[in-house]
Amino acid sequence: MKIDVEAIKKLREATGAGVADCRMALEQSKGDAKKATEILRKKGIEKADKKSDRQVKAGMVFTYAHHTGRVGVILALACETDFVAKTDDFQNLGRELALHVCASTPSNVEELLKQEYVRDPSKTIENLIKEVIGKLGENIQVLEFKVVKV
Predict the structure, then answer these.
(1) Given 45, 55, 85, 89, which is the most exposed site by the fewest CB atoms within 10 A?
(2) What is the predicted pLDDT for the residue at 55?
(3) pTM score > 0.85 for this model?
(4) Which of 70, 132, 122 is nearest to 97 (CA)?
(5) Please, which residues have CB within 8 angstroms of residue 130's CB and are 6 or more apart in sequence?
(6) Could you give all domains of the chain from N- to C-terminal order, each with its CATH number?
(7) 60 near 77, Cβ under 8 Å?
(8) Among 123, 136, 71, 70, which residue's Cα sits nearest to residue 102?
(9) Are 54 and 80 in contact (CB under 8 A)?
(10) Contact (Cβ atoms closer than 8 angstroms) between residue 105 and residue 98
(11) 65 Cβ contact list (under 8 Å, min separation 6)
């Protein structure tokens, strides 16, 4: 099946996956963008599982304070290199995780990873992180977080 360049471009913009991966996913799904997105998501999770043993030596600390000012979160998110820590995808993940922790107040990292993501209950936090790992190609881990309430 011949895949249109525009279809590849749209899928790449939507998922952040590489051109070759987008073409392959569209070919496997016979041009169905929704199925292709799911194929890429699964491929990203598989990549993430392979990277889970890598050592994380860089990262950033993220904060979130609820608009009422009565609850806030500080969260340490680690990755392998400073280069990835500065990417928009990593930054967005850190902010989203801090917001999620504020909204759901898990007691530890293991509990956090098993929770449904507040913005999209069809995903767990662990799968959300794995999607970003698949996109960025580095191991990413939540090291710790602290919730402060007034």
Answers:
(1) 55
(2) 78
(3) no
(4) 132
(5) 44, 45, 48, 49
(6) 5-51 (1.10.8.10), 58-149 (3.30.479.20)
(7) yes
(8) 71
(9) yes
(10) no
(11) 71, 72, 73, 102
3-state secondary structure of 2: coil
Report residue 103 as tokens: 């909204």
b/e per residue 111-131 (b: at least 16 CB within 10 A): ebbebebeeeeeebbbbbbbb
132: its two tokens? 């970003």
Closest CA to 9 of 30, 29, 43, 33: 33
| pLDDT above 80 (res 113) | yes
Give the CA radius of gyration of the chain.
17
Bridge partners (DSSP) of residue 29 are none
Which whole number is the average pLDDT over 24-28? Answer: 83
Average pLDDT over residues 57-74: 94
- For the chain, the residue count is 150
User: How many degrees, rounded to 5, is the angle at CA 65 between CA 62 and CA 68?
Assistant: 175
Contact criterion met (CB below 8 Å) for 97 and 104 = no
* pLDDT beyond 90 at 142: yes
Sign of the torsion angle spanned by Cα atoms 93, 98, 101, 107: positive
Round to whole Å and give the CA distance between 137 and 14.
17
- Closest of 147, 150, 149 to residue 73, by C-alpha: 147
